[in-house]
Amino acid sequence: MTTFHFYSHLLPLPTTSPTSFKTLIPLNGIPKFVSSPRHSSPSSLLCSSSKNKPSPSGDNNPSDFCIIEGPETVRDFGQMQLQEIEDNIRSRRNRIFLLMEEVRRLRIQQRIKNVKVINENGNEEIDEMPDIPSSIPFLSYVTPKTMKQLYFTSLAFISGIIVFGGLIAPTLELKLGLGGTSYEDFIRNMHLPLQLSQVDPIVASFSGGVVGVISALMLIEANNVEQQEKKRCKYCHGNGYLACAKCSASGVCLNIDPISLSSASGQPLKVPTTQRCPNCSGSGKVMCPTCLCTGMMMASEHDPRIDPFD
Amino acid sequence: MAGVLFWVICPKENATALLSLIPRSVKQKRSRLCPTLKFSTGVSAFSSAVANPARSSEEKVYEVVLKQAALVKEQRQKKNLDLKRAAETDGMTDWDLLKEAYDRCGEVCAEYAKTFYLGTLLMTPERRRAVWAIYVWCRRTDELVDGPNASHITPRALDRWERRLDDLFEGRPYDMFDAALSDTVSKYPVDIQPFKDMIEGMRLDLRKSRYKNFDELYLYCYYVAGTVGLMSVPVMGIAPESKASTESVYNAALALGIANQLTNILRDVGEDARRGRIYLPEDELARAGLSDDDIFFGQVTDKWRNFMKDQIKRARMFFDEAEKGVTELNAASRWPVWASLMLYRQILDAIEANDYNNFTKRAYVGKAKKFASLPVAYGRALMGTSKLFDLSRT
């Protein structure tokens, strides 16, 4: 399947034609022409371009663009002035917004056409609501139905325990110590300090309840952390960036000038100067190529770059 | 490209059977070509193929193996004269960063290849880290064409990736994982050619989804798995008392890589078919009376069973080749290698146990069986090289 996407990059891109543009939206006074994409392939996302904004030559050509960073790519836009950079960012964000809206409308059409096909074959309900992941360790998804079940079972359990502890146990004179001994005998048999047997029942139940609640909360929290960690990109730990190796994440590199080192003797050695690291442009971080800076394990999940409004 | 990197590292086994596949006359010719290849660093091993068009993949691959062995001998002589590589880098080596990079390599390995990770725990700490660094690089390369961003990969991206590889081999790593591999490469005599061949394999995978005959499949298996065997031989180390030739050890490593990849392929037939890929030789399928549609349909028939029997037999043959050479390895590395060989071999047994249904069932070796193999592997690891039987581990 990767082969198809690969070749789509090489297809000649459709140029914008006046008859096919859908909207003419003036933004910041600069009209942007948005063409309706003829193929819904990734390459067409990059082909719709506006004619009136400043941009370095060649940056609209998608076959030039490469998702892997190299030591010299950070400088790709290095020739631009600050104002130019800001304009570029603004225009690209506008384009992204418009493209995402187009994709949303296309998907509506897609869904309509799909539903038509499904309805012809049989009744199939399309559940629009997202699944709510459960925070209880062994439950996978929560729906309103399972919520009701949960309420019911927990209420039943609580009332059952209360009835048991309050009514049944004292009535039956249940002694739950080992071998049917009472509390005091149990303490004595286990050779535990005797003051434990003098504990006030209210204090005992309160502490038992607190211990139970705290351990339950901790269990849920640990489980939650585990779930979130599973979603993180393992390479960059969710950061989206990796440490730059050239400057060891400091941002500055030593200026080693080979000529001056071998200069004539008699001149004092120059103190080594530092320069901004060319690899990462001084930031100390470089792009994580696995998650494309999203920090998520699968860059395709919930990443608008890959699948908007899915 | 499912299953490319779910292999378990198993470098260095003898591959005398592999040699037997090559006709004698060609073998003589190759040894004469060898000296010219020895000192042509940076020249692709396949450049000589231009002069000789009708050579099989096995011969081409063998040539790479010979070159690797020759380079190792060269490097052993040069090692004393080499200045410390860190002096060549124009950055500051930060040992904390390096340690963190290695730790992260371990985490990635533990996450994506659990059994392999457990196997690495049987190695010495330095080797373990080196193997992790190599694994992470290979995995990142594989994810370029097989991961979630695969649809955005262009040949230009792979070229850039290859340039990053060249830079890191020269001591100029780009990011922290490259730095870990760069450090590994400076400590062990690892050559760049297998890495480049792996990238070449990725390029191949972008274009191809069918293999006409076993020769093509063998080349693919070399690219994605044989190279890993060659990469890890210098890390595992050959036992100093071993009398076997370096070439034979490399051949064995190659055979083990091929065996692992074939096992992967046989295990994941259904999964690959669902992505529209068939990693089985088309001529052999035709000979068994099977077509691509039969595979996509996923029905286990007697024809399929017979076909699978032959494929499994061939994979086992490669494992046997690999087995012959584990004994030549460094004593400390034999146990993990044996363990991984045996575990991976058991996957073939599992396929048979599933009645050759690799369409819907995943051949799986249970934890109990995995643990049971460990002491057996330990026992086999205690046996020294075939020429020298040492009862105690050195």
Overview of this structure, please?
The complex is a heterodimer of chains A (310) and B (394). Helix content of chain A is 39%, strand content 9%. Chain A has 310 residues and is mainly alpha-helical. Chain A has a two-stranded antiparallel sheet. In chain A, strands 3-4 form a two-stranded antiparallel sheet. The model of chain A is unreliable at 1-62 (pLDDT under 50). Chain B has 394 residues and is an all-alpha fold. Chain B has one domain: Farnesyl Diphosphate Synthase. Chain B contains 17 helices and no strands. In chain B, α3 (57-78) runs parallel beside α10. Chain B starts with 15 loop residues before the first helix and ends in a 12-residue tail after the last helix. At the A-B interface, α1 of A face α4, α6, α7, α8 and α9 of B.
Kindly summarize this structure in a few lines.
With 310 residues, chain A is mainly α. Helices cover 39% and strands 9% of the residues of chain A.
Features:
heterodimer, A: 310 residues, mainly alpha, two-stranded antiparallel sheet, two-stranded antiparallel ribbon, B: 394 residues, Farnesyl Diphosphate Synthase, globular, disordered N terminus, disordered C terminus
Return the string of H and E elements of chain B: HHHHHHHHHHHHHHHHH
Name given to the CATH homologous superfamily of chain B: Farnesyl Diphosphate Synthase
Total of DSSP H or I helical runs spanning 4+ residues of chain A: 7
Could you name the CATH class of chain B?
Mainly Alpha
What composes the largest sheet of chain A? Answer: 2 strands, antiparallel
The general outline of chain B is globular
How can the largest sheet of chain B be summarized? Answer: none
Tell me the distance between the termini of chain B. 41 Å
Would you identify the regions of chain B where 5 or more consecutive residues have pLDDT less than 50?
1-52, 80-92, 387-393
Count of helical stretches of chain B: 17
Give the integer mean of the pLDDT values of chain A.
71
Derived from helix and strand composition plus strand pairing, the structural class of chain B reads mainly alpha
Strands across the major sheet of chain A, in which order?
A: 1-2
Largest interface by Cβ-Cβ < 8 Å = A-B, 42 and 51 residues
**Looking at the structure, what is the overall shape of chain A?**
elongated
Name the poorly predicted regions of chain A.
Answer: 1-62
The proportion of residues in beta strands of chain B is under 5%
The third-level CATH topology of chain B is Farnesyl Diphosphate Synthase
Write down the Rg of chain B: 20 Å
Structural Rg of chain A:
33 Å
Instruction: Please provide the count of β strands of chain B.
Output: 0
Keywords (chain A): Membrane, Transmembrane, Transmembrane helix
Transmembrane segments (chain A): 150-169, 202-222
InterPro entries (chain A): HSP_DnaJ_Cys-rich_dom_sf
Organism (chain A): Herrania umbratica
